[in-house]
Specification:
Elements lengths: L6 E5 L4 E6 L4 E7 L4 E6 L9 E6 L4 E6 L9 E4 L5 E7 L4 E6 L4 E4 L23 H4 L19
Antiparallel strand pairs: 1-2, 2-3, 4-5, 5-6, 6-7, 8-9, 9-10
Length: 156
């Protein structure tokens, strides 16, 4: 389900992606992919013109971005984000950044517009400057990613 709660999508081994209008409880678009999807995540902010959907290829390290409302089978952009197939992605709409993990446990941060490391919103330039490689060192993988939006304000 998208961050604004308006859209929902499903992926299937038959290479189809189905986009649903949550409010009207109606399937609005079906996309046929030339690959089997591995992971899917809505990557747009409320009010964006395009309802961007990131879909990873189950058998490669490529992530494709689609405009879900267009109904087109053609991706807007595509890029090899990881070295292996992407298992999971999570979008942080506050920082307009996606956090993704591949089948080797490597975690990457990227901007959905550029498919590159974000210029803003993170406090490091290289993932080697963090403890993100601990998962790889422990020879395990990531099964889910969550973003916690926690803002504490104190009265003045």
């Amino acid at each position: 389900v998208s961050a604004d709660g308006l859209l929902c999508c499903t992926i299937s081994n038959d290479r189809s992606v189905k986009i649903y209008d949550v409010v009207n409880y109606d399937m609005m678009v079906m996309i046929r992919l030339p690959y089997i999807a591995g992971s899917v995540e809505w990557v747009y902010k409320q009010g964006d013109v395009k309802a961007k959907l990131a879909i990873s290829d189950r058998n490669s390290s490529i992530v494709h971005i689609y405009d879900a409302r267009s109904g087109s089978n053609e991706s807007i952009s595509s890029r090899e984000i990881h070295l292996g197939p992407v298992k999971v992605m999570k979008y942080n709409h506050i920082f307009d950044t996606v956090v993704s993990a591949d089948d080797k446990g490597i975690i990457e941060y990227w901007n959905p517009a550029t498919l590159q490391f974000p210029e803003d919103g993170v406090n490091f330039r290289l993932t080697s400057d963090t403890n993100l490689f601990e998962i790889v060192k422990c020879k395990t993988t990531v099964s889910t990613i969550e973003v916690i939006y926690c803002f504490i304000t104190f009265p003045s």
